[in-house]
Write a structure and sequence with these properties.
Strand content: 15-25%
Shape: globular
Distance between the termini: 27 Å
CATH class: Alpha Beta
Number of strands: 9
CATH architecture: 3-Layer(aba) Sandwich
Radius of gyration: 18 Å
Order of helices and strands: EEEHEEHEHHHHHHEHEE
Largest sheet: 5 strands, parallel
Amino acid sequence: MIDISDLIFRWRPDGPRILDIERFTVAHGERVFLQGPSGSGKTSLLNLLGGIVTPQQGRIAILEQDLCALSGARRDRFRADHIGLIFQVFNLVPYLSLLENVALPCLFSERRRRRAEANDGSVAAAAARLLDEMNIPPGKFGGQPVRELSTGQQQRVAAARALIGDPEIIIADEPTSALDGVNTELFLDLIFQELKQRATTLIFVSHDERLAGRFDRTVAMNSLTPGPEAGP
């Protein structure tokens, strides 16, 4: 699913080496917990996996596609088609409804739109089903502005948005940092239930070591990076 080899990454050509990865692979359907403190290179690695930036050296293959061989526009299209993102700060659009927020990836990816329609008959039906499975039934919350939802509810809406259209990979960037212990466990239960149905690969980034036991494998960022992370 993911195969990184001989990778060297710096934010600036003359800057410090942020990541130096000889080999890092993730299997289809695997749940990987990336753990490390602030400045350990987590964000850099996620940006590379998403094709937002490219390394100075090495290969990043996702679904057997070498991201480094694609133009910026084609990397954006690949990310929209194959990767669902759950952000730490949610990034919900306040002037869109809950259903519209969840359906948003299908506006940017025809592939995910077709999958949503094949699974549920329409994108709106797929969005409604995912919200219901995330315990945010549209009939109860449909007319409520997203900013009025609780933190845990907003995070579940963000997760439904990442899952719509069945992307092969979910990348979650500190998604539980704003949640208490009970809501963190609830969120993980819901996410794992959805991923199991789809055999989706999960890359989950957190500094909270207590969560590691729920994943198939833990990767410490200090094993992938030689020193402090530099800013962009």
